[in-house]
Every structure is written in structure tokens, then in C-alpha cells.
Design brief:
alpha/beta, about 15% strand, 7-stranded mixed beta sheet, binds magnesium ion, Rossmann fold, binds adenosine-5'-triphosphate
């Protein structure tokens, strides 16, 4: 059975998609069969993996509201062991359509779809910057939630609301959901603020913040425009190495062995 993780933070631009895409690519690189589920109408995970969202005829949208068998919408990427259930801009319409459904059906759709997906070690779900019906579907469908947090002023703002939503989902819909961890992103070691933010967040979520901190990296931000994950586009860049370290930390935490070490220096 695949481990399913949802990456969520209703704050926009904190690094959810970048984290999903780079972790997934790292996992696939090391032989873990990985499926990325793009549950965001912005389709950033889809484009970051080199697909043209506007040219796709089958996507998570048709699966969620049109009853298309999920296998028919999953595509392989250019990288071995890395598949994608893509999104299209039309997914925005799913919000309206799903909200017209009865409550349980509305939020449990993705969980049902993913329960029928076989052949992966990991399923990583990217969610949009809101706590709406798509994000709740993504939380109901997962065993763990990973929360990327940007190292900036007011980083903790909004996290109370997110934690509350996670608790509600745990109580009412998905008792198996756990907070898998918080990832600090876009860290700038030159600023004292970034360091303060990291310690503040560590204090707020004791033992829940990953050791691996992702630095601000031009290479990571360039990679999507080439349709490649940063760990493929610039594997020796600081950002890529940080994501590889994070992937190893996550995998080891899940009981896997990873035979990879960052190069010294
Ligand atoms: P949204 O809420 O809109 O879905 P997001 O949380 O998924 O956003 P990303 O799209 O991953 O965030 O990142 C936002 C922007 O910041 C992107 O342009 C991305 O390339 C850039 N970015 C992400 N992580 C880093 C980093 N470590 N260093 C530099 N730029 C980064
Ligand atoms: Mg995103």
C-alpha cells in the first residue's frame, strides 16, 4: 500500500508545489514508485513536471466529477518511477460541482479515487492555497499532512487555522490523518529574521519540524520553467541538495533505507 501525503498550507506561494515536485523526483530517483496528484487548478505541479496542462484531455477533474477511471488519467513523466495525475484549469469548476454534493460525498471523493490506485510506494498530493473543498478532499485522502512554511515574518499566521482544519478532518472524516511534519522553505541564512522564524516554528511544533531546511535558491525557482524538478535540473545546487536531504529524512522516518549522502563541501 502506498503512503499518501498531502502538502497543505492555505497561504499562497510558500513552497507546496516545489516541495511536492522535488520530493517526488528524489523518491523516484531512489527507486520508490511515486505518484504526484495535482489537486490545484493552478496546475503548477503539472507544468513543473513538464506537461502542458491546457493540452490535457484527461485530468483529476474528470476523475473527481466525471467518474473517469483514475488509471485513464494518470500519465507517466519523463522520469522513471514518477507518474502524475495531472490538473487542468477546469478543476476550478470542481469546487462548485463538489459543493453541490451531499457532505460526505463532497469531501471523500479523492480518498475513494486514491484508494483504488495501486503500484506506488508514495502518493504525494499538491493542494491549492485555500482550505476549500479541494484541500479538504486532499486531507481526507491522506495518512499524513506535510506543511511547508516560508521563513518570513508572520510565518505562523494562519497555521492555527490550518491546524484546526486538520483536527476537524481527523475527528469527523479521517482519524488516520497525522501531521507528518513542517518544512521550512525559502530560508535565507543571511537574515536574523529567518533564523528567528525557524526557532519560533520549532517551538510551536515541537519535534514536528524537519531538520532539513530548504534555502532560497534561484535554481529551484528556475527549474519549473524548464519543466523539470530542481533535483533534476540542478542536482548539485544547494536547493536541490536540501530537497534530497529532506526526501531522505522523510523516507528514513518512514522506515526505509536510503543509500545517498550529500557530497562534502
Ligand atoms: P501556491 O500557494 O500558489 O500553490 P506554493 O505554495 O505551491 O504556491 P510554490 O509554487 O512552490 O509555492 O513556490 C512559490 C514561488 O516561489 C514559485 O515561483 C517557486 O518557484 C518559488 N520558490 C519555491 N521554493 C523556492 C526556494 N526554495 N527558493 C527560491 N524560490 C522558491
Ligand atoms: Mg502550488
Amino acid at each position: 500500500m502506498a503512503l499518501r501525503y498531502t502538502f497543505a498550507n492555505q497561504k499562497g506561494g510558500v513552497g507546496k508545489t516545489t516541495t511536492v515536485v522535488n520530493l517526488a523526483a528524489s523518491m523516484a530517483l531512489w527507486g520508490f514508485r511515486t505518484l504526484v496528484v495535482d489537486a490545484d487548478p493552478q496546475c503548477n505541479a503539472t507544468t513543473s513536471l513538464g506537461l502542458d496542462a491546457r493540452a490535457l484531455e484527461r485530468s483529476v477533474y474528470e476523475v473527481l466529477v466525471g467518474g473517469l477511471p483514475v488509471r485513464q488519467a494518470i500519465v507517466s513523466t519523463r522520469w522513471d518511477g514518477l507518474d502524475l495525475l495531472p490538473s487542468t484549469p477546469g478543476l476550478a469548476g470542481a469546487t462548485v460541482e463538489l459543493n453541490a454534493e451531499p457532505a460526505q460525498e463532497r469531501v471523500g471523493r479523492l480518498a475513494r479515487v486514491l484508494a483504488g490506485v495501486e503500484g506506488y510506494d508514495y502518493v504525494l498530493v499538491d493542494s491549492p492555497p485555500s482550505l476549500g473543498v479541494l484541500t479538504v478532499n486532499a486531507l481526507v485522502a491522506a495518512q499524513g499532512v506535510v506543511v511547508p512554511v516560508q521563513c518570513e515574518y508572520l510565518a505562523l499566521e494562519g497555521l492555527t487555522q490550518l491546524t484546526h482544519t486538520i483536527t476537524l478532518v481527523q475527528r469527523a472524516l479521517n482519524p488516520n490523518l497525522a501531521l507528518r511534519g513542517v518544512v521550512m522553505t525559502m530560508f535565507d541564512r543571511r537574515t536574523t529574521l529567518a533564523n528567528e522564524v525557524v526557532s519560533q516554528v520549532r517551538k510551536h511544533f515541537p519535534k514536528r519540524v524537519f531538520e532539513s531546511v530548504i534555502p532560497r535558491s534561484v535554481r529551484l525557482s528556475e527549474a519549473p520553467s524548464y519543466g523539470e524538478p530542481g533535483v533534476v535540473y540542478a542536482p548539485r545546487s544547494q536547493g536541490a541538495v536540501a530537497y534530497l536531504c529532506l526526501a531522505r529524512e522523510l523516507l528514513v522516518g518512514d522506515g526505509h533505507t536510503v543509500d545517498w549522502e550529500p557530497e562534502p563541501g
